[in-house]
Specification:
Elements (H helix, E strand, L loop, with lengths): L10 H5 L15 E2 L10 H14 L9 H21 L7 E4 L2 H16 L5 E5 L8 H10 L2 E5 L12 H4 L4 E7 L11 H10 L4 E4 L11 H4 L3 E5 L10 E5 L1 H6 L10 E4 L4 E3 L13 H17 L1 H20 L4 E4 L8 E6 L4 H10 L2 E2 L1 E3 L4 H7 L4 E5 L6 H18 L1
Parallel strand pairs: 1-13, 3-4, 3-5, 5-6, 6-7
Antiparallel strand pairs: 2-8, 7-8, 9-10, 11-12, 12-15, 14-15
Helix pairs in contact: 2-10, 3-10, 4-5, 11-14, 12-14
Length: about 400
Amino acid sequence: MTTTPTLTLDVARIRQDFPELSVPFHDKPLIYLDSAVSGLTPKAVVDRVSHYQSFEHTNVHRGVSTLSQEATDRFEEAREKVRAFINAPSAAQIIWTRGTTESINLVAQTFGRSKVGAGDEILLSAMEHHSNIVPWQLLAEEKGAKIRVIPMNDDGELILDDLESLLTERTRILGVTQVSNVLGTINPVKEIIRRAHAKGVPVLVDGAQGVPHLPVDVTDLDADFYAFSGHKLSGPTGIGVLYGRRELLEAMPPWQGGGSMILSVTWEKTTFCGLPTKFEAGTPAIAQAIGLGAAIDYIQGLGLARIAAHEHDLLAYATERCASVPGLRIIGQAKHKASVLSFVLDDIHPHDIGSILDHEGIVVRAGHHCAQPVMARFGIPATTRASFAYFNTREEIDALVSGILKVQEIFK
């Protein structure tokens, strides 16, 4: 007889993998509800990075020594783990960057600069992070192009009925976040890509908030570019990924020049390497890349389906609990959400809320979350944001609600 595998996580055991959770914070247990800004790093990842730095450290792709060859193998094994994790056709299409921001800048300054001209249009969604707005604004100002925006409704869902009219013969690229870092909205990126491709428009997906919560298959999505950051995925900071369609990457010029990305250099001409090396000038973030590979191993060991089920339960519970607090308004009520809950409370500024919660041992995010156009859309200066991960519990959400009630008591 076969049995259906359970989708529950042993959260008590998982929490033992995070030393930070065992350290008192303002003389209270640390309640970390800020994974949308940066996921906590499990000990297995810390240990893997430490082992490389302690026993395997050298440069890669440059040496004939056994140590260098072995370091190169570990570095490229990490690239292959990323390829498999997002189901890219080839590891050559996985470009190491410093993070989502650098990945998007790379596309804007190579593909974008060669494709966008005066009078052309760049289409973005109304819920983009600044990292998927500012690089395109810089390009538009340089080229004399125009930014157009897919609007969203009051629930924080994109109004895709407007997409057909926004995709014109002048649209050169569409940029869209897979999951909003403010609203938690999970956008139908596969459908958006399908509609854009029907008009011959390539699509860049900001997956920074997608990869920690959703299975990602860039081949199934048919994405032209997909960007994400390691630290959102419980990996190290300073490492990110750009996936690109091979024919696009091959046609794009290098973004930065230097060592490692060249075949030959003379005073007259430089000949560049092929993919992915063409885009990886200089010494890469070797330890961080290896650490990201370890983070992927850790996440896959837990199981993305189990993580998703647990986080969905936390979000539903937190939404119900917070909705019962008088004067609290949740910003973002999309039907499909990841484990992000943003709210405003009475007339109390989110910075004050965040500061009081901090002294209760609760770490949340307060501000505009690098998404000021989203704040303007909802007519607010900022929100308080709680974001939940696989190591969080319902009891921590109860503590959050108690902290919110304490904020109200203080201001009354």
